[in-house]
Amino acid sequence: MTTLAQAVDLPDALFRRYTAIREIGHALTAVATGQARVIECALEPGTASDGTRFDAFTEVRWQTLHAYLTLLQAGAMAQERWLREQGLWTPRRDLATQVAARQSRAAVQATAASADEIERAAAWAQELLGYHWPLLLHFADLLDQRGHLYGSHLRKVLRVGAHATGQPL
Q1: Distance between CA 68 and CA 97 in Å, rounded?
Q2: pLDDT tens digits, residue range 15-39?
Q3: Calpha distance 56→41 (Å, rounded)
Q4: Helix 102-110 and helix 65-85, axial crossing angle in degrees, nearest 10
């Protein structure tokens, strides 16, 4: 059986960053919706089920179905964009990214949301990722270096950024 790490076929350091991008994609969009609260994002030492030498998770409390659908879809979207921007995108990596997002897709399906609700949330996820992309890269770097980030830090930086630009979250 091929693991995610084998399918993506990136050096360990880049695979860790690729994973940090996914987790921060979930977390940043959750916070940016204004309808969810991130508790923590982490890349912890250990062997995960996908064969990596770390386990990744993002703990979120959402208030609306729309926010939940948005954050679920944002992780794979962020990874795909990052792979393309880094010149690392290949059809095999894209497929691996989509396969890795199966838990998120299963969670979306379990909500029994309509196709229209899912589509609107995906569009919102793309919009939030686009608007906050520089912050996502910054936070992914921090998560990669530190191994964990707390939601309070994400909220604080987003509020500061929104006030500085005059833009809403």
Answers
A1: 20
A2: 999 999 999 999 999 999 999 999 9
A3: 8
A4: 160
Longest dimension (CA), the chain: 50
Report whether 36 contacts 61 (CB < 8 A).
yes
Whether the per-residue pLDDT at 46 is higher than 80: the answer is no
CATH code, residues 4-157: 1.20.58
Extents of the domains making up the chain:
4-157
The whole-angstrom separation of Cα 28 and Cα 49 is: 25
- Edge to edge, the sheet with strand 36-45 lists 54-62, 36-45, 148-150
> Cα 130–112–59 angle (5° rounding)?
55
Rounded CA-CA distance 61/31 in Å is 10
- 111-149 tens-digit pLDDT: 999 999 999 999 999 999 999 999 999 999 999 999 999
Characterize 22-39 residue by residue with b for buried, 16 or more Cβ atoms within 10 angstroms of its Cβ, and e for exposed. Answer: bbbbbbbbbbbbebbbbe
Which amino acid belongs to residue 56?
A
The residue ranking higher by pLDDT, 60 or 7, is 60
